[in-house]
Amino acid sequence: MHMLFNQINYLWRLIATGFCFLLFSLGGLLLGYIIIPMAVIIAKIIRSKKQKSEKKHIAQYCIYLTFRFFTATMSGLGLIRFHFIGFDKLKKDKGTLIIANHPTLIDYVLIVSKLPFCGATGMVSI
Question: Which UniProt keywords are present, listed alphabetically (predicted)?
Answer without folding.
Answer: Membrane, Transmembrane, Transmembrane helix
